[in-house]
Structures are given as structure tokens and as C-alpha cells.
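Dissemination and training. As part of the outreach component of the grant, students in the summer workshop were shown how a complex can be specified as a set of sequence lines and then modelled as a single object. The example used during the hands-on session is reproduced here so that future cohorts can follow it. Participants entered these lines:
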Amino acid sequence: MLDAITLTEAYNVSSLSDQAWISPPMNPELFKVACSNCNLRELCMPVGLQQAEMVKLDSVVSTRKRIKEGSHLFSHGDPFTTLYAIRTGYFKTSVLSEDGREQVTGFQMAGEIIGMDGIVSDQHHCNAIALEDAEVCVMPFENVEELSREFPVLQRHVHKIMSREIVRENGVMMLLGNMRAEERLAAFLLNLVQRLHARGFSQTEFVLRMTREEIGSYLGMKLETVSRTFSKFSEEGIIEVKQRNVKILNPDALKNIFTPQSCG
Amino acid sequence: MLDAITLTEAYNVSSLSDQAWISPPMNPELFKVACSNCNLRELCMPVGLQQAEMVKLDSVVSTRKRIKEGSHLFSHGDPFTTLYAIRTGYFKTSVLSEDGREQVTGFQMAGEIIGMDGIVSDQHHCNAIALEDAEVCVMPFENVEELSREFPVLQRHVHKIMSREIVRENGVMMLLGNMRAEERLAAFLLNLVQRLHARGFSQTEFVLRMTREEIGSYLGMKLETVSRTFSKFSEEGIIEVKQRNVKILNPDALKNIFTPQSCG
DNA sequence: CGAGTCATTGATCTGTCTCAATATTAGTGG
DNA sequence: CCACTAATATTGAGACAGATCAATGACTCG
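and obtained this result:
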């Protein structure tokens, strides 16, 4: 069985780091069909399951589904029936206010679970939109619940996934309620890099999958402010930015942005 | 069996509305010991359970616990073992940034469940602090999970409670990311009134349990701005404010505050 | 190559913060 | 019961971070 280190190495691109601004390797061939044989199993639904349980989990995943860049995996109001595990590609989730303002509530990547917003009222509250061509595992929630009743380990894992989302959103509330523009962007970049690193990508350079406007919506600031803040970090030698390509030159400086001052 | 209407009437104070600024009736005698006989069962854990299931649920609630105003039910870093159902009193939950800034993540009242932030890492991420003397039902999470495996209805309910929290936080993100000070306070008041009404209290007048600073922390604004916005609503005849006593004179005007403009 | 989308940068404006002073209320002890 | 204190709330004046408006530049894709 692959451990986390092996997984990391399988995706590691640091040996390619002399080629600047490369895209992360998103070759679909790397992914096997079943959970029990999936490269993402250390990050995704099967975490902590025994082999026998994991084989059972394979039966939970009913189908796979491809989503074209820009199209909706689900939309506000859609009936909720299933959770989705992201295999490849990136998503954003967002909510719309009654008067049409969009708030991006998160950016999701491979191994992350989306759709939990739909459980409470059997219909989705968010929109989930692919930021690039993507593939997801369809996990009918009935199946998840049934298997959860059988396997306490899976039950606990499902609870942890939902709890993690609650805690993540607490962090976003801290960000939106208490931080200045620079702090927000620094927190965003650090979080992104940390999650990419957990998937075996470089800790220093990556390609943003979202526009300045989407970043701004997520961080509660205007796209111009996002752009200006990127430029400021760049002038200070903390990062290098070319459009959506970002290289972190001084991670410590990014972490030291945080000082108690006014918010927005 | 009491239905929701009966519950509402049991708590209704509208007949006392000529006495302005009264406190909601929080007589502990109203509450019976067991879930199966609790006035809050239409709002709390037992929603949708059959009598037999509810009797079983009684065994989940191991003990009750009293918390003095200002003291912590749990704190960041505390080991997580149980969820809590609020019987009486109000709580705030908050997170602290590394440099000591507080972000209030929510205000909770009778019938609401807190502690779910602890599941993901077996320790709490939030602080939960009583805003007045309070009483909670202690529900060891092991028990909850065990009974969930037995009763799909309870399992689904637990999932819904967590999903509801995710959706609630999405709403707060919208508020913090996209709304002006007036909109934030209006949304806050409307939400509070709606939840109080569901518990049988007046739709028009109530007593705030939290300081201006705590409201401000929750809404991502300074206490002075909270106070000014209260005064503005008051000058416009939308509400009447005397310190923590609030009377909503024109609910429609509150709902019409929302117009797409700049945020914070 | 051309049109549309996305990003950058500048100049100005404004909502909210900051600092500061005062008013109100609740709690305490004599 | 009333002073005294601490906590909380209100209000004012000025400052500033980020929004807005606007123009230009860079990239993508058919």
C-alpha cells in the first residue's frame, strides 16, 4: 500500500522546477477507476479505511462524470442526491444573493468532496462550477449513508469531512471579518500552496485556475485590489506574478504579512 | 404530541406586547428532562423521530450542564468528545487568529447544536462562551454516532444539522464579502428575529444578548459602526433602540435595505 | 489576425475605521 | 438607598484603505 510519502512523490514536480511556469501534471491516466486503487485515496473518501472496507466503498461510487470548463456540476435549487469527489480539475462554489451578487465560497481541487450544502434541505444552496475540464466521482448520498451505518470508520470520516468544511469556513470568516487586503491574499496563497503541496505539487510555483474577479469575490475585495496587491507583493520581491503564473520567492515574508491592523 | 404550532404558542409572548422591552420567558421549569418530553424537540435533535426512536435518544443525552454567563462551554484546543444541545441561554462561538484577533463565528440559542467544529481533529477549533447563564444537554458524540448507525432517521438528521451549519456559514460569507454595514446589520436583525419567532417569541421586539463589539466582530465591522448604524435605522423610523432593547417598527424597510452597492 | 476576455495601472471618491470625548447602565460596597 | 466604579454605548471629527471609474495592455481562441 502506498503511503502518503509515496503519493507525494508520485505527483512531485520539483524535479521539473527549472522549467518555470509549468502546469501541474493532470494526466487522467494516472487515476485508476476504483477507490481501492485511486491515487487520491490518502486525501479523499477512503482515508483510514481497511482494504475490505475500501472495496465496499468502490460500490458507493456509482459513476464518474466529466464536466466541461465553465459548466455547472450542480446549481442552486437543484435537487440533492449525491456528493461528488473531485478526481481531476478545479471547481469553485458560490452563492448568489437575491439581488444577484455572487460570493465565491470556496475553490476545490482533486480529492476534495463537494455537495454537502445540499443535505439540509434536499436541494443545493451553492453553485459548483468547473474552472477547467474536470472529472468527479458520483457518490449517491443514500449509498454513503448506508455504508456509514455498516462501517463506523467511514461514518466518522464522513463526519470529519463535514466538520472540516465548517472549520474551513470559520477560517474564511476570520479572513473576511478581520483581515486587510494584503493579509487576505497572503492567506489565500499560503492555503493554496499548502493544499497543492499535499497533492505532490511544488510549494513554490503554481498556476491559478481562477480569475482575479473570482479571487476577489472569495476574499471580499474588488478585482483591481487583488491585482494591485499581487503587484505590491511582486514589487516587494515576495512573489513573482505573470498573469496566472505565481512563484513564491519568500514564503516567510508571506507568513509575516499578518499584523493586527484594520480590516475592510 | 405537540406540533410546531403548539410549541410556538407555548412560548408566545405577543399577548404581553403592551409591556414594552420585556425579556423573553426563560423559565427553566418549562423544560422537561428527556428529549421525548422536551419543549424544544421540534427544533432540536429529535426532529422527525418516532416516539420509540426518541426514547432511545434520551439515552444519548448523558447529562445536563450549567454554564455561567461569560464562561466557556469549550475552548480552542479542548479535546472533543461531545456535542451540546442548548436548552436555555445564548452562546457565542468565536475563533482567534494567531495574533489574537477575535472573530465571532455565530450566536446560538435554545434548540441549536454546537461543538461540531471539534469532530475533524478531535479537538475544538472554536470557543463557545455563554452570553448569559445557560444550560446544555451533553450528547457524547460516540453515543450519537452509535444511535445514528441504528436509526437512519437520526443519521440523516445529524447530517442535516452539519449541512445547515455549512449553509449558514455560506450566508455569513456573503454578508462579510459583499454587503455594506447597513445590509449586514439588517441581515443580522432579520435572522435573529426569524429564529426567535421560531421559538415562539415576538417578531418585533427582543433583547440583544451580546455587546456592540460582539455584533461588530460577527459582522466584520467596528463597534462604533454598529452603534451608528443602529442610530441611523432608529432615525429613519425602522427600529427603536434603547441599549440592548430593540423593537422593529418597519420590517419591510429592513428587508428593503438590500441594494447592490459597494461592500466593506 | 481580430475580437473578446482578462489583467494592470492611475486618479479620485467614499464608507468605514480610528481616535477621542461624553452618556448611560449595571454592579459594588458603604 | 445612594455614591462610586467599571463596563458598555453613543456621537463627533478626521484619516485612510479599498472602491470606483477609466484607460491601456496582455493573452486566448476561433
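Residues 1-32 of chain B have pLDDT under 50 and may be disordered. Students were then asked to discuss how this feature might be tested experimentally.
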